[in-house]
Specification:
Pfam families: Polysacc_deac_1. Helix content is 43%, strand content 12%. By secondary structure, it is α/β, with parallel strands linked by helices. The protein has 2 domains: 6-123 and 193-320, TIM Barrel (Alpha-Beta Barrel), CATH 3.20.20; 137-184, no CATH class. 41% of the residues are buried.
C-alpha cells in the first residue's frame, strides 16, 4: 500500500475544508514554533534550493494568517513563563536559522509591517568569515557537475550527497567535500559566500525588536564532533552576537535539529550557557495532544511549501509528536 505524501494530505485536507473546520474547534493547545531558513525564489539560486521555506508572497500570507488566528509570542515570553502556562494557549513563535540575507531583505520588512516578533538563530562564523556552508557548497558543486540534467536528477544527487555527509565524523568532512569537488571537476568553492546577512543588517533588526539566538560558530552537527569542541561552538557564537548586537542571547538551536543531532550530554552542557534550546523535527510543545515541555528540546516545525501545506502544519502540528 502506498501512503499519501504530506503534500497530498495537505491538498486533500484543504479541498475538503477539514483544516478550516478543525481550526474552528481547535485541534491543539500549547506552543507551536515555526522554523524558516530562506525566503524567495528557489529556482534562481545556484546553491541549495532545499533550504527555501517558501516564496515572498506565501511568507507574507503565512504571517498574516498567523497573526489573525493565533497568539504570536516572543522568545522572552517562552523563557519567562513556566510550562503550565502554555497548556490552554494556541501560541506561535516564529524562528529563522543560519543568517541568510533574504531574512533581512524579504522577511524582516514583512515581520516589521505586521508587528510580529521573530527569533533569528545566527551562525556567527558565516557572518564573520562570509564562508560558504557545507550544504550550499555541495549543491553548487553538484549543479555544475549535472548542468543540463533535469531538476529532479540534480535534486536527487544533492540530497544523496548531503545525507552521506550527515553520517560521517567531523574529521572526515573536508576530505569528503574534496572528493565531491574532484568528482564534479569543479574543485572547492573559493569565493566569499553572497548569501549571508551582515552585522549592520542584524543590528538594524535588533533595533527594531527582533531577537537572536546562538546557532554555533561553524554549524557542525555537534554529535558528529568531539565533545571537546562543544564549548567553543556553544559559547563563541553567543559571544559574537552579544558583542556585535548588544543583545542578551538567552537561547540556542541545535544545527540540523534532528533527534540524533543532540544528546543528553549536549543538552546538559547547553544548559550551562542558555535558558532553553530548540530542536527541529516537528511537533508542538505542551498542551493537549502535545509533547512534554523539555526546555532543552523545544520542538519546532520546519516550514516548507505553499499556503495549503502551511494550513496543514498549523492545524495538525501534534501529528508528528
Amino acid at each position: 500500500m502506498k501512503w499519501p505524501t504530506y503534500r497530498t494530505l495537505a491538498k486533500r485536507a484543504e479541498s475538503l475544508g477539514l483544516n478550516r473546520l478543525v481550526r474552528l474547534v481547535g485541534s491543539w493547545r500549547g506552543l507551536l514554533v515555526l522554523t524558516y531558513h530562506r525566503i524567495g525564489d528557489a529556482d534562481q539560486c545556484e546553491f541549495d534550493r532545499g533550504v527555501y521555506s517558501t516564496d515572498e508572497a506565501s511568507f507574507a500570507e503565512q504571517m498574516a494568517f498567523v497573526r489573525s488566528h493565533f497568539e504570536v509570542v516572543s522568545i522572552d515570553d517562552v523563557v519567562r513563563r513556566p510550562a503550565a502556562d502554555w497548556k490552554k494557549r494556541q501560541a506561535v513563535l516564529i524562528t529563522f536559522d543560519d543568517g541568510y540575507i533574504d531574512n533581512y531583505e524579504i522577511a524582516f520588512p514583512i515581520l516589521k509591517r505586521l508587528e510580529i516578533p521573530a527569533l533569528f538563530f545566527v551562525t556567527s562564523g558565516f557572518i564573520d568569515q562570509r564562508s560558504i556552508s557545507w550544504w550550499d557548497e555541495i549543491a553548487w558543486m553538484v549543479r555544475k557537475q549535472y548542468a543540463g540534467a533535469s531538476d529532479e536528477e540534480v535534486d536527487d544527487a544533492i540530497v544523496e550527497i548531503v545525507e552521506n555527509y550527515y553520517e560521517i565524523p567531523e574529521a572526515e568532512c573536508e576530505a569528503y567535500l574534496n572528493r565531491v569537488g574532484d568528482d564534479a571537476q569543479t574543485g572547492r568553492y573559493s569565493d566569499a559566500s553572497p548569501v549571508w546577512m551582515t552585522w549592520e543588517m542584524l543590528r538594524e533588526m535588533a533595533a527594531s525588536g527582533m531577537s537572536f539566538g546562538g546557532h554555533t560558530v561553524s554549524h557542525p552537527i555537534l554529535t558528529r564532533t568531539r565533545s571537546g569542541n562543544w564549548e567553543h561552538e556553544l559559547t563563541e557564537g553567543r559571544r559574537r552576537l552579544e558583542e556585535e548586537l548588544s543583545v542578551d542571547v538567552q537561547v540556542f538551536s541545535y544545527p540540523v535539529g534532528n533527534p540524533d543531532c543532540f544528546s543528553a550530554d549536549l543538552k546538559q552542557q547547553t544548559a550551562r550557557h542558555y535558558r532553553a534550546a530548540f530542536s527541529c523535527y516537528g511537533g508542538v510543545n505542551q498542551g493537549r495532544g502535545a509533547g512534554n515541555w523539555d526546555r532543552f528540546d523545544l520542538r519546532r516545525w520546519p516550514v516548507y511549501g505553499p499556503m495549503r501545506q502551511f494550513h496543514m502544519t498549523t492545524t495538525w502540528p501534534q501529528l508528528l509528536n
